[in-house]
Fold each of these.
Amino acid sequence: MAFLIHKAMKKRTQIIILVLLLIFGLIQFIRPQRNQQTNLSRYDILHKTDTEAIVENSLHHACYDCHSNNTVYPWYASIAPVSWMISKHVKHGKKHLNFSEWILYPKEKQLHKLDEIVEVLQENDMPPAYYTMLHREARLDETSKQHLLNWARELKSKISASVTQQE
């Protein structure tokens, strides 16, 4: 009797595994749209600027995957449900700040976003730990972080001066 119960449970387990594999295979056909623009946007924060190479490099490695129109996707981003989570994170990041559309922001919004950039860098909130665990190149050392902070403050100063001149 125990043998029959064991055999029935083994068969049920095999069916469950088969169904799960089938579901996993089918969800691979549900693909989110990719966030990949081929060129640097003419509205990008770095478009036609003399930004230091260390700042550009830091922005591209630590920020642009979630905060621009050009995400560099790792290999595992093609596998559902991971692809869905990454798509959700990118949409959320771009909703808060999109460097690819920076010039389209009103000056007041740009000033506010620069304040937020300074704040999240000072509080070590960005890039998030879950991201830097998988993307070592996104980790900001103190030098890179300080360059980004200086860049954001200088840009804010320039924008503030242009707003003052227009008034």
Amino acid sequence: MNLEIAASQMESLGNPTRLRIYRMLVRAGIDGLPVGGLQQRLEIPASTLSHHCKKLLDANLITQERNGTTLICRANYRAMSNLIGYLADECCADGRCEDTPTRASEAADT
């Protein structure tokens, strides 16, 4: 992965609504969620959801597949793994690492 791709993906996830969409799709697994289901859960207009999904599509973080009249959105797990790997690849390469919690809930306890 190169810096430009990572920056584009991070920028896409930097919006609270897009981050919520992405997390919902990550949780949904490989079956994904229909756009209508996303819209109901988020309680946002279809045009707003479409705008945010386009940004995530352009960053290659999600995929969409038409199944009859239903548009299914899925997280692109390979892209997610690549981004996470890119962020962690050089962890502490030039120095010592601090002991850090492995889960967000553990981080909240500190």
Amino acid sequence: MSTSMNNMKLVIDSLAKEGIRDKVKVIIGGGPISKSFAHKIGADGYSRSAVEAVKLVNQLVGISA
């Protein structure tokens, strides 16, 4: 995953350039990723596990558990 970290901001910037950044949610996670890094690159959220990711996605799209 650490090799893909450089491209995460590129993806977010590309979404903005195409004018669709506000239409999608971007969440990132994995071993080398942190909440701070997610905030720094403009991601909508961070999760350290798949279970937490599902909860986060539900929050982001307005589904209550």
Amino acid sequence: MRRIITGMSDTDAGLGKVVVNRAMSLDGFIAGPDNAMDWVFDYLKEDLFPEVMAATGAMLIGRGTHEAAKRMSAENTGYDGGPVFVLTHRPPDEPEGVTFLTCDLAEAVATARAAAGGKNLEILGADMASQCLQRGLVDEVLVYVVPVLLGDGVRFSTSGLGRIDLEPFSNTQSGPVTMLRFRVRK
């Protein structure tokens, strides 16, 4: 069944946080050239931080991130944090096991947060995260720093993001990966 949602209004009462979640190379890339993500699975094969997934109720991603994840699906089982919402101007004709949203960004965040069932909404992808940060829709940023230098690829944020002040509140190391957590100052 193909699901496309064009909008939804909801209040923020009782909803989890909106968290930008990403793995990043030490030189600041979240994907290598051609959106390659295989290097991430070299380091995050195991669930090094199970508390993050336990707190996640839904994910919101852009179409580019969704397409990159589909290319990797032969090696990886896909998303693991509840229902997945893909915000796009051009939903596909065939169903793909996710919900496509064609609404405004704030409506997409509200829709996905409501589906998260009181847990956190994870935002994945550089463009989607940058847009959410610019609009003041993000509560926290969570970064898995992976001990690799990629040299090129997709940067942590898109150009033109502007200044976003963050407050560090946690850092944890598990194996070779360090998880950094920040609150977004509003």
